[in-house]
Amino acid sequence: MDFNLPGTDGRTWSLADVRGSNGTLVMFICNHCPYVKAVIDRIARDCRELERHGVRSVAIMSNDTERYRDDDFGNMKRFAAEHALPFPYLLDETQNVAKAYDAVCTPDFFGFNADLGLQYRGRLDVSKVQPVPNARRELFDAMVRVAATGQGPAEQIPSMGCSIKWK
């Protein structure tokens, strides 16, 4: 499930470029989704903290930018800067990467161990379009566990959000 995608930082990124020593978090997000908007600052916080555990993160935007202009590359750059995203934010213009991962919504999280075995396909937390105060950090806790043991939790609740906008 490798990729070579342009980032909002002007660089082209591959899976090898973002791979962490203890795990890798691949996220499918976009700029306009109310679910993403509600949690993006917590996603950024968790990804910063996961770096200390050897987990690196990347976000991929796969929506049809012809029909959803809020998600175009220029707006992706603004979104990344506005939220000080601590990970590469990449454009999947062909949507081939989203299809390869079987991504279905934004946000959609794929947590891999050091050997790139999928260990977490769950949600950030219980929040939907309104943040839930003091919600248990399900994604963060799962990825800390993956970093330490190579295994994700047995119980995982799927992420919920806007559907990916297919061409």
Layout: helices, strands, pairs:
Elements: E1 4-6, E2 12-14, H1 15-18, E3 23-28, H2 34-51, E4 55-61, H3 73-82, E5 89-91, H4 96-101, E6 105-106, E7 108-113, E8 118-120, H5 138-149, E9 162-163
Parallel strand pairs: 3-4, 4-5
Antiparallel strand pairs: 1-2, 3-7, 6-9, 7-8
Descriptive terms for the model:
alpha/beta; 5-stranded mixed β-sheet; 30% helix; globular
Description of the structure:
Helix content is 30%, strand content 21%. It has 167 residues and is α/β, with parallel strands linked by helices. A 5-stranded mixed beta sheet has the order 5-4-3-7-8. Strand 1 and strand 2 form a beta hairpin. Helix 2 (34-51) runs parallel beside helix 5. It starts with a strand and ends with a strand.
Rounded to the nearest angstrom, the radius of gyration is 14 Å
The amount of beta strand, in percent, is 15-25%
**Overall pLDDT:** 97
Question: SSE string, helix = H, strand = E?
Answer: EEHEHEHEHEEEHE
Largest sheet: 5 strands, mixed
Adjacency order of strands in the biggest sheet: 5-4-3-7-8
Count of β-strands: 9
Oligomer: single chain
Helix fraction bin: 25-40%
- Give the overall silhouette: globular
**Contiguous helical run count:** 5
Gist of the model:
With 167 residues, the protein is of the alpha/beta class. The chain has helices spanning 15-18, 34-51, 73-82, 96-101, 138-149; strands at residues 4-6, 12-14, 23-28, 55-61, 89-91, 105-106, 108-113, 118-120, 162-163.
